[in-house]
User: Fold this.
Amino acid sequence: MEWSVNRESDKPIYQQIFEYIEEKIAYGEFPPGSRLPSERKMAEQLNVNRMTIVHVYDELQASGLVERKKGSGTRVSTHKWGILPKGVTNWRKYIEGGSFLPTYPLIKRIRDEAKVMKDGYNMAGGELSTDLFPASFLQASFNQHAFPSNLGYVHPQGHLEFRETLASYVKEYHDINVTSSSILITSGAQQALYLITQCLLNPGDAVAIEAPSYSYSLPLFQSAGLRIFALPVDAEGINPDDIVTLYRKHQIRMIFLNPTFQSPTGGVMTEPRRERVLEIAAELGIPIVEDDPVSLLSFDGKTHYPLKSIDKSGNVLYVGSLSKVIASSLRVGWIMGPESVINRLADARQQIDFGLSIFPQLIANQFIQSPEYPKHLAFLKQELLERRNEMVLALNEYLGDKVEFSVPKGGLFCWCKIKQKVDDQKLVEEAIKNKILFMPGSVYGSPNGYVRFTYARLQREAIKEAVLKFAKVLDKV
Amino acid sequence: MEWSVNRESDKPIYQQIFEYIEEKIAYGEFPPGSRLPSERKMAEQLNVNRMTIVHVYDELQASGLVERKKGSGTRVSTHKWGILPKGVTNWRKYIEGGSFLPTYPLIKRIRDEAKVMKDGYNMAGGELSTDLFPASFLQASFNQHAFPSNLGYVHPQGHLEFRETLASYVKEYHDINVTSSSILITSGAQQALYLITQCLLNPGDAVAIEAPSYSYSLPLFQSAGLRIFALPVDAEGINPDDIVTLYRKHQIRMIFLNPTFQSPTGGVMTEPRRERVLEIAAELGIPIVEDDPVSLLSFDGKTHYPLKSIDKSGNVLYVGSLSKVIASSLRVGWIMGPESVINRLADARQQIDFGLSIFPQLIANQFIQSPEYPKHLAFLKQELLERRNEMVLALNEYLGDKVEFSVPKGGLFCWCKIKQKVDDQKLVEEAIKNKILFMPGSVYGSPNGYVRFTYARLQREAIKEAVLKFAKVLDKV
Assistant:
């Protein structure tokens, strides 16, 4: 709810709120029979005293606009779900249908909190802090070029010029050989994974993902009706032999890997394991989906080349994005793989959204070719390295005897095992009370007692404070 | 295939093509066992003599890279689909899976032709010609504003400022009352329809669409497993009583309507029918999805207000977009409806693509508020009116005794009934031979013998030529 009370108005606050709700009822935005937020919640959302809302709801009831019943809250009159009168759609029945599962409650809880929290410490979401976005660089390189005069539908696989640039880009940065016709531009890596799970797999299919992994937190695997099996991750990545075991037992049809600076563990799969994984997958004829969002953010000067760069069998679908190296709101990602697969995904994608807007493609195309881009990358790595150092210092100082962790050599995340026994849900709630956000390991498929901290979102000074605050929260639970 | 032969190179053409294919095989873009295009097709795609390709394929076979068999074409060696050896993914099995139906062959045929056709007459696709896009206006209003410094993920429903602008926009142009929290920004109307069919309906549900209608041409209804029933359209739109009949017979759960300048017929539903449709839908509790892409493009000064503007029960989900009034490659559309529905769709949408890029939203936000926007609309309407007049003149002159049509009072399309008996498929193929593209009525659910012409894509002079050419094609079949 983004409307807010105008405190400078002559109109009393309760009157403003009354009219706001009345209007939403009249517009059909709160349809007959729907439930209004509780008084407490509405008061919080609108940042007013609870008694004001009690007053408003009383007035709404008096005017016949809502009905109130003990235990079932305040509802828009005069209709109730279940015994719905004629004249209105039972929207709840529609909302509960469809094939999409809702976002996991704990993740939704943290995301919702992140939206409203003021003066808090966000170590949860995997994105960069505002000052790390190259907004002025982007604008400068964009303004140098005229908009193309043809703004008609772009090619189903994405803007051709940009795909050609990307082919050179992945050659230069990742040693991947690909031509423009084997690239599909997507709305970030999220859409890439959505298309792959929806178009290349069938409900009931078995797939393997790393445990823990970011993939585990995505309801899209479940929404697609897939059965998920775990490839446990250790300090060297997954164990290639586990693929064989899963294949024999469950006939897994696809493997999802994030080999470099993995989310959430921050780990890097070793080279011998990479080679072995490719060998095994090729031998079994199982495709690998390689998610590679942050491999450019290496702190020790070492380059980690993707599986795709050493795959000669065409078994790897390579998924990348600019979300973590430029900006998440750009929404530019890609899939690279066999032409026949790319064509199929591009055709399905036309049905979903008719392709990505040309503008983010133009902006990305100009920026990644500009001399500013390598400068930006160097700046970004240096900043993240300093923040990581700050976090490592703070973890050692305030939590040295309470957590175990490896120092991440790149990426955005630090993964900690809490030595004491702890309930993830309680830890999250206590942390929220203290204005700290982090991601609990359980949403990534870990047992309770692991946490993923992002150092990319907080300034250096704030990282120290946040870890200290977290230490106090941990003492409490 | 976008690679092309370099005719200025010293390297022989067949050698260039050989290396191109060799590279694609090496990269895994043509995986082992996959079939290469036929010699004829490859020659066409690369715009070379067929004998050159015969030579290349001979060389590829000699080098062991491909295998050729009578009747089954040329395949990358040494593996075949079906009896696939170890070491490679059987991609075909994956491509044929998933829940997405491919685009209808006839539509794909026309779209593919549109991509490669040079000096032809495109009266098929529903988009504007290059000169009608306000590229310089867009750029000017965009460059006046600094990029926002925060380029992190935007709100799941879309950029707040843009949603607020849109709320005023639909009030001003369509007399629709809505607040920003009841708006979801989508990637065009296509994504709006995708989200609604995927998230609010279940496989097996019955829905009603206009006959003929653009919706009929969308495989997304079938992909979602919906059963589709017809609401025949006459000169006044659909007949409201048909809704009751369909409801009794099939328990239809949703109605899809395009009341103003409908695609493909160009017709407008009359006001009494609009009121009656709303009454009936409300009485039966069936939601209406109102698709309204072109109602602003009225030629006779008359404003046609959407169903949504007179709906007080919250039964209408209103779908709009800027594709036909600004540019299709902007990819900006929206759904407006009850907050609970919008929240559900926004949550599902996060799983699909994590939201629309902020840049098209910023560009649209700035342009539709600028004084240039009404000027652009006026220019666009005038241009389209002149092109419509040109088409009507040409139809009367060259096809007066062979087709029947109503003069469209707005929008992009002219819908013609051919008096003689004709096979749509044959007509399309003969037209393609003569470099003319149009949409046959059968893809919209009409019987054979109807055609949809777009006058938005051709310059005035070209319209006359195109209709004359079409008349000649019609004579032939």
